[in-house]
Amino acid sequence: MSLGYSSNNKRHVTNLSGSTGNMFVKARQTKKNDTDVTVRSLLSKMNTNNTNIVSILPTKKEDQPPQPPPPVSNLETHFVYGTAQKDFLDESDGAIICKKGDDIMLVYPMQTNKDTGEVKMRMKKINAHTAQLSYTWIVVYTGFEDDTRLVTDFRLVS
User: DSSP for 43-104?
Assistant: First the structure.
């Protein structure tokens, strides 16, 4: 007994030109869309002297291209890690956000004061009890006069 052959298989005969071997391609008859037939019959009964008639056939949902995904916010697309060179305090309540030597995550874009050269970035932080994410602006570079870098050792991996 060989693989793929059974004497019980129905043998197909074709009138295709050329040798097709044992290959037989079945042609599938497509069903006409009832709406398509109805609309075409209505259009044929109408006065078609006006050459500006445009097809009013409904489009199928699957014929339409898929919707693009929603745009990603460019504000959180890029981020870096850095090491704090001082204790950062929350401006609203004075609580310590991070201590000197802590690794912190900073989110782009930067804000630069053109007059003083001060550079700020948003620091992403998490509440250890609720897992709630929040952002706070911190100064990463003090500017032209002091020339102090408050965050150093920038990297992509923590």
Answer: HHHS----TT----PPPPGGGSPPPPPPPPPGGGS-EEEEEESS-EE-TTT--EEE-TT-EE
In a domain, 107, yes or no: yes
Number of domains within the chain: 1
Close Cβ partners of 19 (under 8 Å, ≥ 6 residues apart):
none
- The range of the structural domain enclosing residue 118 comes to 76-155
- The predicted-structure confidence for 118-148, as pLDDT tens digits, reads as follows 999 999 998 889 999 888 999 999 988 888 9
- In terms of Cα–Cα distance, which of 138, 79, 89 is closest to 111? 138
Q: What span, in angstroms and rounded, lies between the C-alpha atoms of 157 and 33?
A: 57
Total-model pTM: 0.50
Q: Is residue 52 domain-resident?
A: no
Q: Is residue 4 part of a domain?
A: no
